[in-house]
Amino acid sequence: MRRILLIFKNDVKRRFKSPVTIVVLLLIPIIMTGIIGAIFAPKEDGNQLPKIKLLVVDKDKNIASKMLLGALDSKELKEMFQVTVVDETEGKKLISKGKASALLIIPEKFSDRLIKAEESELLLIKNPSQQFLPTVVEEFMNTFTIIISGFVQVFEPELKTVDSLINMPVEQLSIVALTPMMEKSKDKIVALKGYLSPLLLQLKEETTGKKEKKTAINVFSYVLPGMAIMFLLFIIEIFVRDILSEREDGKLQRMMFAPLKSMEFISARVISAWLMGIAVFLVMVVLGILLFNISWGNYFFLFVFAAAACFWIAAFFALLNSFFKNRNQAGAFSAPIIMVFSAFGGSIIQVDQLPAGLRWISQGTLNHWFIKGAGQISNGLFPTLPFAVILLTGIILFLLAAKFLNKRITV
Amino acid sequence: MKKIWHIAFLDIKIMVKDKVFFFWTLLFPLVFIFIFGNLYKQDDPSAQQAALAVLNKDTGQWGAYFVDQIKSPGIALQEVNEEPEQYNRLLIIPTDFSKKIAAKEAQQLVFKKRDGANVQAAAQAETRIIQAIAKTITRLILNSGSEFRNIIRLKTQFPENTLTKIPSGFDHVIPGTMVQFIMMMVLIYGGIVVMTDRKRGILSRILFSSASIAQLWGGKFLGRLMMGLLQSLILIVTGLLFFNLNLGNIFLSLLNIFFFCITVASLSILIGSLLNKEDLIVGVSVLTANIFAALAGCWWPIEIVPQSIRTIGKISPAYWAMDAFHQVIFFNKGLRDIYSNFIVLLGYTLVFTLLAVRFFKIKD
Q1: Residue A248 Cα distances to A11, A52, A267, A326, A327, angstroms
Q2: Do B124 and A198 touch (CB under 8 A)?
Q3: Distance between CA B173 and CA B322 in Å, rounded?
Q4: What is the full per-residue pLDDT of chain A (411 aa) written as tens digits?
C-alpha cells in the first residue's frame, strides 16, 4: 500500500507541474454547458424561443386586416411575435435575404370579401433557411383563419346587410327595416356569450412523468453531468495512458527492478487515475455551483456515485491499454470510443431524441448510467440501479484489466 | 511550387495513414448527420406527424364530431378505449361531453403530454385541438346543421427564385457537420503534425534541403488546406450519394468551403506553433472547434438562438461560412450577396497567418 501511495503522490506532483492540458479539458465541459444553457434555458418571460420576426404587408388596409394586426399587437402575441408592417417590395426583399421568419401578405379587398362571406386567400412566404419558426407562424395563421372563418359564418347575414348598407345612399337607410336584423344579431351575441364566456370547451394541459418545473438552473444541471462524464472519460484516459508511456520510455522496466509487484503497479496506476479523476470531478462540481448555481442534490450520494464512475473509467481504460501497443494507438482508439459513448449515451444529445432504433445502444454506455444517476441524485434519490451497474461492471473491468495487464507487464 | 506540394502531400499522407482517419472523417460525422438529420427531419410528411392518442369516453354525437375535426395529415391520431400506459400525447374526451354541450355548460378537455416528448409535435397537436374547438363552437353557434366552412385559405410558399421543395433535415445538418469537422480535423491533425515535426526536428531537416522557410510554411499551409478540402469532399460525396444533399450553386458552395478551409488552415498552424503537447493541442482544438460550431449554429438551427448570442457568434469564422451556405443553399444567392462573407473569412485568415508566422518555430 505504501508503494501504491508513493506512485500516486508522484503522479499528483507530476500533474501539478504541468496542469495546462487537464485545465483545458476541464474547461471544455464548463464552457460548453455555459453556451448550451444560455441558448436553451427558458427566458424570464417563460418563452423558450426568441421572438419570431414576422413581416406583414397590408394591402387591404381595412377592418379585417386592422383586426389581425391588432391581435398581433396584443400583449400575449407581442411576447411571441415581432411584427413589422412593410410594403410588398421591401417585404419580399427582406424575406429573400432571410431577415425574418415569414412574410404575411394580406390581399386587397380582404375585408370586402369577408363581409360578403366570399372565399379569400392569405399568402405566407416562409424563410427556407429556418426550420421551426416559420412553422409556428403557419400554425398560428391557420388557427386565425379558422376562428375568423367561424366568425364570418356565424354573422354571415349581418355582414351581408352591413355590406349592402355601405353602398346604400344615406337617405334610403331605414332603421325600422334594420330592427329585425339587429334583434337577430343581439340574440346571436347573447348565444355567443353562452359559448364564449366562459369558453364552452377549454383545454387543460397536464404534463406526465414530470419531476420539476424547467428552469434556467436545471437546464445547466441537465447539461453539465453529460458534459462532465464525457470529459472525465478524456481526462482519466490521459492519466491511465501513463501505463503505456512508462512502458515505452523504459521507466516501467526500471520500476520492476524495485521490490514492486506487477499487481501493485497496476493497482497504483488505476487508483491514481481514479483518485485524480474524482478530484477533477469535484472541481467541476464546485464550478457548476459557482458559475451556474447548479443544485447537485445530496453531496454524499454524488461523491459515492462519482467515485464509482471514475473507478469504472480507470478500469475500462486500463483494460483497453492492455491491448494497445503504444501511446499513439491508445490515443487514436480511445477518443473515438469516448465520442461514440458520448453521442449515444446522452452527453451530446438527449437519449430520447435519438432515432428509436438506436436508443438501446445507450444502455451500454457509462454516459447513460451516469446522467441517469446524476438526475436521480439531484431529485434527492440514491441512484441504486445506475450505481450498481457502474460498480459491478467497473469491478469486472478492473479484474480483467489486472489479468491482461499483468501479462503485458511481466512479458 | 513542387516543393510546397511535396511537403503538403506528405502531411496529407500522414493524416490518411492514421488508423482512425476514416472514423473521424467519415464514420463519426455520419453518426452526427444521421442523428441530427433525423431530429430535424422535415421533408417526409409522415415523419412530421405528431402522434396523438384520443380517449373518447363520450357516447353522444359531439365526441365523435370533435375527434373528426382533429383529424388532419399532420396528426397521427390513434383512438384508444382506455388510457394507455405509454403515450406521448393523450386527449381525454369526458363521458358527459355531449351532455354538457347540449346544456351549454363549460367543460375542460384534458390534454396530457409526456415530459421529454417532442415539444414541436406537442405544439402541433395542441394547435389542432384548439382549431377543433373553434370549429365545434362555430358549428354549435350556427345551430342550423350547416358545416364549418373555411372561408380564408392560407397559401404558403418560399420566396421567389429560392427553393421549390421543402429542404430536408439533412440539407440543414450536413453543411453544419461539414463546417464543424473541417475545424476539428484540420486543427487537431494539422496542429499536431506542426508540433511533432518541430519537436522531432523534421522541420529543421526539411530546411537542410533546397526548400526555403517560405516554401516550408507554404507546404504546411497547403497541407492543412488539403486536409479541410478532403474532409469536405468525403462529406459532400456521402451527402450526395446517401442523403440527396442540396448544395445550391455547387461552385459557390465549394468556394465557400475553400475560403473557410484557408481560415482554419492558418489557425491550425498557429495552434501547432503555440502549443507543445499533443493532448493540449487536442484539448484546445476540440474547445475551439466546439465553441465556434455552437455559436455558428452548426449543431442547432441558428433561429432558436437568442439574438445576443447570435451577435456574439459573429466572432466565429464558422458563422460566416454557415451564413454563406444558407444564402447559397436556401436563397439561391449569387457571389455578390456572399462576397462580404468571403472577405471576413479572408480577414481571419490574414490575422491567423500573421500570428502563425510570428510564432512559427523551426525548433523548440
Answers
A1: 17, 59, 19, 7, 8
A2: no
A3: 11
A4: 777 788 778 888 887 887 888 888 888 889 888 888 888 776 655 566 788 999 999 999 888 898 889 988 888 888 889 999 999 999 999 999 889 999 999 999 998 888 888 899 999 999 998 888 898 899 889 888 988 888 888 888 887 777 777 777 777 777 777 787 777 778 778 877 778 878 888 888 888 765 555 555 567 888 899 999 999 998 999 888 888 877 777 777 777 777 777 788 888 888 989 999 999 999 999 999 999 888 888 999 999 999 999 999 999 999 998 888 777 777 778 888 888 898 889 888 888 777 777 788 889 999 999 999 999 998 889 999 999 999 999 999 999 998 888 877 764
Dist CA A159 CA A164 (whole Å) = 9
Contacts of B303 in chain A (CB under 8 A): 50, 101, 127, 130-133
C-alpha distances (whole Å) from A341 to each of B17, B31, B159 are: 25, 12, 42
* Contacts across the A-B interface (CB distance below 8 Å): 271
* Contact in structure between A329 and B20 (CB atoms under 8 Å): no
Please check whether residue A159 is in contact with residue A117, taking contact to mean a CB–CB distance below 8 angstroms. yes
- Residues 251-280, chain A, touching B (beta carbon < 8 A): none
> pTM of the predicted model, to two decimals?
0.81
**Nearest-neighbour CA in chain A from B57: distance (Å):** 16
